[in-house]
Write a structure and sequence with these properties.
The protein is 47% helix and 24% strand. With 83 residues, it is α+β, with helices and mostly antiparallel strands.
């Protein structure tokens, strides 16, 4: 997966923001979402994003996998990432 061209990522103290530079649409992300999007933007896969969440937060693997899968589904649906 990779980010579509024209999507900018900015990290904030509360998580992050994605900006579609073509039309000004933006999405706010919590810390977990920011980790996932940054992993995908760096060319890593969803398994790597899950591993990073497990390192950063006290969360069960099944929950991290479900959260990454759901966020990834939403990102694909919004055409922010391409499969």
């Amino acid at each position: 997966m990779k980010l579509r061209q024209g999507i900018a990522i900015t990290t904030t103290e509360y998580g992050g923001v994605l900006l579609d530079e073509r039309d000004g649409t933006y999405w706010q992300l919590n810390e977990c979402g920011t980790i996932v999007v940054n992993a995908l933007a760096a060319g890593r896969d969803t398994d790597a994003a899950v591993e990073q969440l497990l390192e950063e937060f006290d969360v069960e693997r099944a929950e991290a996998e479900a959260d990454v899968a759901e966020l990834t589904r939403q990102l694909i649906e919004a055409k922010i990432v391409t499969p």
